[in-house]
Write a structure and sequence with these properties.
Number of helices: 16
Strand content: under 5%
Number of strands: 0
Radius of gyration: 23 Å
Order of helices and strands: HHHHHHHHHHHHHHHH
Largest sheet: none
Helix content: over 70%
Number of domains: 2
Length: 292
């Protein structure tokens, strides 16, 4: 109930501040420049959080300006580093919001702080964060903000080079490792998919699951995945995989098990074809063995 109320409140307040900006209330030039500076700061915070972790934000925010809207950002990021739960962080933020006399761009900036801080806290992908920012700012400011948020994206050339590197290599698990048979079966199925089948399969899988798969599959299977999605999504997946760091075997096996269930469902719907007449029985046996 509280969550739904706070979510509704966000959009109500966003509508109000958009109306104020349209009417030109406040020192628009100064506040607009402040907004662009804030977007640059948020890009920096996103980069630090993804590459070094949330705790590294604690040192960075000590250098934030002590005037304007920045103290609000300091408080929100500090809550993140202290481990405050998202819903509680929202409540704290709205208490500050309504106790402060904010209008126009500054009201909008506060709401962007809140939205992006929550995204940073849960580790959302840079593309999602960029979309949150660009979908919130006024149309007249979007291009200027986009020039800043594009820094969230890796260099396209480096992405191409990384993809080529990922197209090589064997499975990350050995035959004597737990779960090898299941991971090897998933690897063989993905490596043997044509583009249409791979696209249908990937639409059924969450991006964070795909990133985990990229950590454990062979280069041949990774190539099928990364060439079956857009270049932007490929760069997102590679970045997620890199910043994920080492993963526990239990997490990898849990993800592959979920993927196997997707295989079984798509087999039943006729999307995944195989010349192996025993494939369905193999999948059933593997899933049954994991339950035991």
């Amino acid at each position: 109930m509280v969550k739904e109320m706070l979510d509704t409140l966000y959009y109500q307040e966003l509508s109000k501040c958009s109306a104020e900006i349209t009417e030109g209330k406040g020192d628009e030039k100064k506040e607009r420049e402040e907004l662009l500076g804030v977007v640059q700061e948020l890009v920096t915070l996103c980069d630090i959080a993804r590459k070094k972790g949330l705790l590294e934000l604690e040192d960075h925010i000590k250098g934030l300006p002590a005037e304007g809207v920045y103290p609000f950002l300091f408080e929100m990021i500090e809550d993140v580093t202290l481990g405050v739960f998202p819903e509680m962080l929202k409540e704290f933020a709205y208490c500050r919001y309504f106790s402060s006399d904010l209008h126009g761009y500054r009201r909008l900036t506060f709401l962007i702080f809140l939205s992006v801080t929550l995204s940073i806290q849960v580790g959302e992908n840079p593309y999602v964060i960029e979309r949150r920012i660009l979908s919130t700012v006024p149309e007249k400011d979007r291009e200027d903000c986009r020039a800043i948020t594009k820094q969230l994206w890796p260099d396209p050339l480096s992405v191409e080079e990384k993809m080529e590197q990922l197209f090589e290599g064997a499975l990350s698990v050995q035959p004597d490792n737990a779960g090898y048979d299941m991971i090897k079966t998933a690897d063989d199925l993905i490596a043997g998919m044509d583009k249409r089948t791979a696209e249908a399969f990937l639409r059924q899988v969450e991006n964070h699951q795909i990133a985990i798969l990229l950590k454990v599959l062979s280069g041949e299977a990774r190539k099928v995945i990364l060439t079956s999605v857009s270049k932007n999504l490929a760069s997102m997946l590679i970045e997620d995989m890199e910043y994920m760091g080492p993963i526990r075997k239990s997490d990898a096996l849990s993800t592959v098990k979920e993927i196997m269930n997707v295989f079984v469902r798509l087999r039943g719907e006729g999307y995944i074809l195989s010349e192996d007449p025993d494939l369905d029985q193999k999948l059933e046996n593997l899933l049954q063995a994991e339950k035991e």
